[in-house]
Amino acid sequence: MSSNRKRWYMKWYSALAFAAVVVGIVWWVSGKTLPQLLRWAPKRTLTDQDIAAVADELERRSPAKLYVDELPDAPKPVRGPFTYGLQAMKEYKWDEAIEHFNQALRHATGRQRVALFNLIGLSHYVPGRLDSALSYFSESATQAEVSGDDSGLVAAVGNVGLVHRDMGDLRAAGESFRRALVVSQRSLSRVGEMKALVNIGTVFHQTGMMDSAYEYYVAASEIAREVGDLEVEALALGNIGLYHHWRGDLVQALKAYERARRIFRGLGDARREAGALANMGLVHQSRGELEEALACFQEALALNRSVGDRQGEARDLGNLALAYKDMGEMELALRGFREALAIDRECGNRRGEAHDLGNIGMVYLYDGHDDVALAYLDSALKIHVETEDIAAWAQDLGNIGSAYRQKGEIGKAIDSYRRSIEMATRAGRTDTRAYSLVGVSLCYSDQGSPDDALRDLAQAFVLFRDMGIQEGLGQVRIGVMRFLEVFGPEGLHESRRRVNLPESTIDSLLALVPEAAAGG
């Protein structure tokens, strides 16, 4: 080998060794693995189509508004980390996404900061970290006000409202949604106005003010038709369907869901078509048409699998499992709930995970495995306490009360039901409160306490009657039958006088069970 060639090789090896030392130092200082370092290497910038795909993916997992504004066109120190962060969000890597967005914040200005705080809030909100999500969404709103960014402000205060709603603070949620409505109207954003109207409707819905909710849903659908926004029209129709379903008007509910489904199919929105199908299935289930319900849930499942919507798939598996439970197919129900649980855990969907755990617990409760049921229900409760989902927390406590009552531990059952009533009142969930009032009334009947049993049962009856919830009135009927079984019709009238209830209330309660009152 010539001396020149030797010198060339020596220089090449020296350069290679130097590069290895530099990489080693960076690796050691940063504490990152080689794959992590490679992940920081330059990647192509996301196109508008890529960003829309990520937004759609996030929309499947939460109702929160994704807002990116001018980030795709920002200077490289902002655009690069923003791109990596979106990719991390799509892969359910929430903490990694937050790390990238925080890096972008170091170089961001004005409206860019509005969007980045929104994205960090979303990265906390989707996995259920509500306190942190509220903090970042609120900061996004503050930055939007400073920057005069009305679009960013609508997105931020709307998301703040969603967090308050999930936390059970419906007053604060309503205030945020109304603020979003005012800003949308000021900036002539018809889409923002429509979505704010729908969100305000959901607050009324959750507080049991169903007629007010309906008015807002109808107002949103009318604007949607006026401006030709088929997507929002279909979303509003879905909520109108929920209103009719809640009222027990299953024919009207089914019509609304079917109209929404036709629109989504025409738009080529398979994911939302699947959601409409799922709602149709729930109506069929309420009507006892379990084969039709199964067909809807299976079609929805196929659609969600075709578009890769994992959380939609989990929801459909859960719905199928509920239908199997109603059919008495407990093994199939348990398998479906477990499959849904695995997917929700994979997606980092803590609220979905808690919902699945609660459903598994109720299957075991139905099968008489009280202790196993309580273990699952307690696990669901812990997640809802952790994520501060007060409405779901209240429902868990009611289910735990039912488990203790089935075990014969009446004192613990009453305590759980009372805590459920307290939490449901805080969350504005009149329906959950009413169901737990029926539960605690049954416990008092079991205990031989007629006055307490009648007082709570009468409260539940008035609440369900005023909300127009037929299923709830069916539960009151069970409570009345249990009361009459233990104390008889005379005991009902004697308790009425002691607790000072009007005779009309007793007449209404007896009208639910005329055969039992007559001794038939």
What is the chains' assembly state?
single chain
- Termini separation: 112 Å
Structural class: mainly alpha
Strand content: under 5%
Name the average pLDDT. Answer: 85
Helix content: over 70%
Give the overall silhouette: globular
Report the biggest beta sheet as strand number plus sense, adding barrel if it closes. none
**Rg estimate, integer Å:** 28 Å
Give unreliable regions as ranges: 1-6, 8-44
Tell me the number of strands.
0
Layout of secondary structure:
Blueprint: H1 3-30, H2 34-39, H3 48-61, H4 76-90, H5 94-105, H6 111-125, H7 130-147, H8 150-167, H9 170-186, H10 190-206, H11 210-227, H12 230-247, H13 250-267, H14 270-286, H15 290-306, H16 310-326, H17 330-346, H18 350-366, H19 370-386, H20 390-407, H21 410-427, H22 430-447, H23 450-467, H24 470-499, H25 503-511, H26 514-517
Q: What is the structure about, briefly put?
A:
With 520 residues, this protein is mainly α. The chain is built from 26 helices and no strands.
